[in-house]
Design the sequence.
């Protein structure tokens, strides 16, 4: 079985293909993460997502340099084009 | 080389080079000569250059290069400096003469000649440290080199003889010493080349002592061969200085030298060889003198053809070129610059040919072997657009512009529109152009078809115009099928683990690929007149369908896994979307089989097994993961109802009563009907089955289009259906009220939510949505009622009595919004009407 599933995979992006139409988790530069339904991707990891929730993670620092607990800001987007140069990782969203 | 550096290390290295061949030696000497020049000029700058010389010498040793001496100056120049320091300190005066020698020999005239004539033998006798080096090896090598090189030397021999003569008079002993050194330190090679010709007349001039010799030479020449020499020689005496100047001016024309080499050496060799052995001054002089006449006669003419023209001409030319040629050059230059200027007006502008070229490149990139799939979205878009335009009465054009056999351009819209003003003429031109290009590329590709290896070495090559990188790489090689199912079939054990998510996704992608290919194939149907092609085409489509069928894994044993592989495939939204597209291609019996499997394994469906839980009154009670999970399940359910149920309905509609009864029986036996029916997909399925059965039983008005189906159903089938339905209803009846979403929600609710749920706590929108879902169940109940016998209808009503009353009351409750109350009434009436009743009859 494992042979059968891996034999058709010849490059890393073939794995991303498996997530087409599925919800994926994408980590972006700038402490951002995005989850959404993957509609399209290309070799540059440009990605088109729908039903996107974007999360920006902050760590605020007090005046005396003490980090506050991290906080996150979220927003929802209907449809999103993510430019590939910001993509760090793509993974299937946790079920 | 031989200079400071050379003593120990450099020289040995050189030796190999010298030993390698005469040519190397000559080159050696040549660069030495050049070195000498440089050394003269730059005595101090030797060291860096030395290194360069080193390598050069080695290189020379490796491969002897007769040609390409033009660059010797650069390479040799470096080497020379060192040498100069060494040798020339003692003999500055001779060098001027030497340059001419080197020139005469061409590549390493002086050095080579000297070395050949005297140096080789001489080197040994002289005790210079460098000389020692040279002598030790050169002597050994020289014999070899001499034999072959001797010929070239022969050339030098003419000049060399003269040179020798000069050397002797000028500085006999030092010359010897220098001779070896001279090998390394001849004067600038360029000068030598040009000088060589002049040499015959000129070299003597350099060394004043040799004037007499030159005179002799000239006489010999005069008597002998060339008229050219005659003029030069008479001048020689007076023109010694002039000649020197000539030498300098003539330096540039080096090209003649090779010719000299080639021509002179052979003839000269014999004469030179004898000269060489005679290392003694006197001997040599005598020899040379004796030789001279021969040389003068034989060699000079030889020289003249090659070397003389430049030399002889060179004397007059130096003056000539400047006035005439300069004018000519200026004229040419003017013309060129004028031309450039006129052309510069159009700099950075594209001419029509440029545009054409770029257009062709672009078009050639667009041409594809598979215009449909590689331009899929444009094709779909154009299909939609054309259908719209067709509705508006406009004609539709082709969506693909055929370019060559098996190649075409996808065109997004109707051609006329898309290319507007360009019209069909332009399109034809374009297509012919592209055709040419494509053919051209096809030829190249045979050679360059390494696309499969692209990136294999880690470097992805950019495409160029000749071999554009395919934007869409369509795998041409047919990979063997990798399928889980094939393994399954081989297994005897019936049970095995369910497909992993990855396997599912992979199988789905394969399915999508196959379906796309099949759809493409269907589009490429041959013209209806070509019977044979149609048959072939049908066969191909059929094989594709078979492949898809196998990939669907429908034929796997029912209990092979939980969920069944096929169910696993349609669990993800992706698989559900694929379902209707698949269904179009499957023949009837296969779709029936698929439906049977689907019904039998219905409880394994995610949308059934993990149906979305009933809504809660307060969404804030849910965790985020919960919310997401609910949303996902809802989405899957919606998608299932949207994608799969219509297909199921379609299949059921083609079934006979017996089949419908059989399917209901399967479902009733294999699954807990009430659980399935508690989900929206379940309700939809059962409703479809029941209504189809009822429509079959009632034998609707004869359909002229379909006479066979008009036959009243087979009584046996009706009986079977009745039995099945009775059993089904019997199983279901106790749970009937619980099928309603509102009941489920109320049951699931707790705390204050339980009281709020029926009221206004839920937003209006959710409430309406809830009513819609209630409607589905009411529809199901109606289907049950229609199918039920009279006594069954009574029990049915009894089971739903409370629900009916509650709903009607709620509808009449003024607190209920008008929309909701209307929906509620309609829902109830849907059921009651099936029984011949109406909500209005309820008090």
Sequence:
């Amino acid at each position: 079985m494992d042979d059968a599933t891996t034999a058709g995979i010849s490059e890393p992006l073939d794995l991303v293909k498996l997530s087409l139409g599925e919800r994926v988790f994408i980590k972006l530069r700038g402490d951002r993460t995005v989850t959404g339904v993957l509609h399209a991707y290309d070799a540059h990891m440009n990605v088109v997502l729908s039903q996107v929730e974007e999360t920006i993670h902050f760590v605020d620092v007090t005046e005396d340099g003490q980090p506050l607990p991290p906080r996150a800001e979220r927003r929802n987007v209907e449809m999103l084009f993510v430019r590939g140069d910001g993509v760090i990782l793509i993974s299937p969203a946790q079920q | 080389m031989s200079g400071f550096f050379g003593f120990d290390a450099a020289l040995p290295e050189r030796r190999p080079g010298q030993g390698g061949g005469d040519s190397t030696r000559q080159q050696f000497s040549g660069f030495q000569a050049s070195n000498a020049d440089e050394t003269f000029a730059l005595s101090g700058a030797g060291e860096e250059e030395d290194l360069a010389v080193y390598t050069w010498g080695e290189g020379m040793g490796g491969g002897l290069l007769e040609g390409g001496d033009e660059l010797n100056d650069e390479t040799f120049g470096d080497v020379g400096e060192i040498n100069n320091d060494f040798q020339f300190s003692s003999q500055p005066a001779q060098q001027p003469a030497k340059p001419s020698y080197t020139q005469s020999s061409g590549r390493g005239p002086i050095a080579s000649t000297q070395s050949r004539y005297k140096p080789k033998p001489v080197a040994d006798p002289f005790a210079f440290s460098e000389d020692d080096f040279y002598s030790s090896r050169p002597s050994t090598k020289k014999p070899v080199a001499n034999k072959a090189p001797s010929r070239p030397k022969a050339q030098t021999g003419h000049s060399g003889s003269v040179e020798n003569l000069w050397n002797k008079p000028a500085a006999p002993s030092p010359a010897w010493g220098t001779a070896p050194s001279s090998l390394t330190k001849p004067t600038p090679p360029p000068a030598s080349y040009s000088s060589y010709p002049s040499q015959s007349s000129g070299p003597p001039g350099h060394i004043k002592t040799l004037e007499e010799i030159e005179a002799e030479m000239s006489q010999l020449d005069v008597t002998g061969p060339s008229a050219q020499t005659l003029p030069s020689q008479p001048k020689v005496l007076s023109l010694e200085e002039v000649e020197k100047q000539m030498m300098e001016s003539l330096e540039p024309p080096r090209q003649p030298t090779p010719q000299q080499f080639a021509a002179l050496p052979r003839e000269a060799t014999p004469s030179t060889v004898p000269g060489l052995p005679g290392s003694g001054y006197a001997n040599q002089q005598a020899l040379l003198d004796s030789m001279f006449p021969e040389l003068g006669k034989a060699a000079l003419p030889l020289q003249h053809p090659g070397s003389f023209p430049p030399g002889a001409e060179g004397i007059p030319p130096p003056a000539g070129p400047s006035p005439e040629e300069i004018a000519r050059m200026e004229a040419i230059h003017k013309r060129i610059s004028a031309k450039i200027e006129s052309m510069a007006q159009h700099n950075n502008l594209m001419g029509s040919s440029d545009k054409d070229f770029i257009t062709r490149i672009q078009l050639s990139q667009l041409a594809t072997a598979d215009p449909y799939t590689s331009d899929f979205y444009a094709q779909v878009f154009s299909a939609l657009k054309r259908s719209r335009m067709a509705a508006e009465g406009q004609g539709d054009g082709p969506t693909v512009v055929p370019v060559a056999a098996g190649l075409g351009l996808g065109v997004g819209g109707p051609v006329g529109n898309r290319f507007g003003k360009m019209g069909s003429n332009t399109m034809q031109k374009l297509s012919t152009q592209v055709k040419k290009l494509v053919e051209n590329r096809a030829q190249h590709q045979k050679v360059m078809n390494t696309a499969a290896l692209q990136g294999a070495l880690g470097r992805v090559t950019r495409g160029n115009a000749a071999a554009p990188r395919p934007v869409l790489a369509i795998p041409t090689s047919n990979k063997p099928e990798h399928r889980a199912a094939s393994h399954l079939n081989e297994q005897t054990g019936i049970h095995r683990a369910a497909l992993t998510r990855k396997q599912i996704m992979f199988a789905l992608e394969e399915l999508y690929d196959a379906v796309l290919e099949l759809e493409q194939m269907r589009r490429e149907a041959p013209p209806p007149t070509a019977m044979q092609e149609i048959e072939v085409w049908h066969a191909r489509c059929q094989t594709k369908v078979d492949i898809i069928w196998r990939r669907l894994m429908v034929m796997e044993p029912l209990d092979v896994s939980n969920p069944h592989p096929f169910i696993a495939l349609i669990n993800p939204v992706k698989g559900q979307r694929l379902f209707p597209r698949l269904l179009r291609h499957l023949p009837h019996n296969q779709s029936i089989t698929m439906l049977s499997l689907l019904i039998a394994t219905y409880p394994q469906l995610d949308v059934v097994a993990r149906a979305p839980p009933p809504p809660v009154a307060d969404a804030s009670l849910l965790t985020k993961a919960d919310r997401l999970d609910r949303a996902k399940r809802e989405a899957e359910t919606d998608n299932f109802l949207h994608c799969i149920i219509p297909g199921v309905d379609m299949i059921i509609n083609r079934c006979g009563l017996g089949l419908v009864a059989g399917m209901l029986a399967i479902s009733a036996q294999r699954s807990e009907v009430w659980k399935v029916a508690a989900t929206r997909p379940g309700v939809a399925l059962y409703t479809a089955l029941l209504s189809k059965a009822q429509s079959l039983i009632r034998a609707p008005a004869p359909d002229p289009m379909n006479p066979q189906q008009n036959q009243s159903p087979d009584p046996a089938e009706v009986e079977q259906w009745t039995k099945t339905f009775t059993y089904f209803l019997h199983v279901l009846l106790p749970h009937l009220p619980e099928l309603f979403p509102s009941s489920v929600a109320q049951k699931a609710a707790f705390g204050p939510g339980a009281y709020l749920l029926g009221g206004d706590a839920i937003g209006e929108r959710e409430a309406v949505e809830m009513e819609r879902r209630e409607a589905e169940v009411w529809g199901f109940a109606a289907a049950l009622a229609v199918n039920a016998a009279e006594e069954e209808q009574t029990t049915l009503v009894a089971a739903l009595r409370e629900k009916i009353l509650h709903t009607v009351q709620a509808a009449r409750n003024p607190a209920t919004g008008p929309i909701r109350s209307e929906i509620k009434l309609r829902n109830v009436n849907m059921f009651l009407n099936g029984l011949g009743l109406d909500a209005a009859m309820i008090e």
User: Anything to note?
Assistant: Residues 314 and 320 of chain B are 9 Å apart (CA to CA).
